[in-house]
Amino acid sequence: QVQLVESGGGLVQPGGSLRLSCAASLSSFWSYAMAWYRQAPGKQRELVARVTSNTPANYADSVKGRFTISRDNAKNTVYLQMNNLKPEDTAVYYCNAVRVINIYWGQGTQVTVSS
């Protein structure tokens, strides 16, 4: 059974940092495109960042220069380093894995940016 388990969320003040992790129980993890999405209350889920094993990462305009996505294929883990956090970054963050027609989601981790 495939599992994506996120961790690292929490409450942080504006300007602070958090690092999210997503551990994936996927065989051939390297072949999956991995991404982070987020969903704020009352809003649609949106792509934050996406990375494959052989192409540069891409980011939502709202997080460029502040967030960095990375992956460790040896550990089957993808990360999201979030710096200079803003209140508008408050959301549930979801890990996503895609390969051809196979799509998997994590359960989500809450990130709250507030003073």
Would you write up a description of this structure?
This protein has 115 residues and is an all-beta fold. It is built from no helices and 11 strands. The strands form 2 sheets. Strands 2, 4, 5, 6, 9, 10 and 11 form a 7-stranded mixed beta sheet that branches. It is globular and about 40 Å long. The N and C termini lie far apart (40 Å). The mean pLDDT is 97.
Output the number of helix runs. 0
Q: What does the main sheet amount to?
A: 7 strands, mixed
Total DSSP E strands: 11
Average of the residue pLDDT scores? 97
How would you classify the helix and strand content by structural class? mainly beta
**Proportion of β residues?**
over 45%
Distance between the termini: 40 Å
Helix content: under 10%
Unreliably modeled segments? none
Morphology call: globular
Gyration radius over CA = 13 Å
Helices and strands, in order, run as: EEEEEEEEEEE
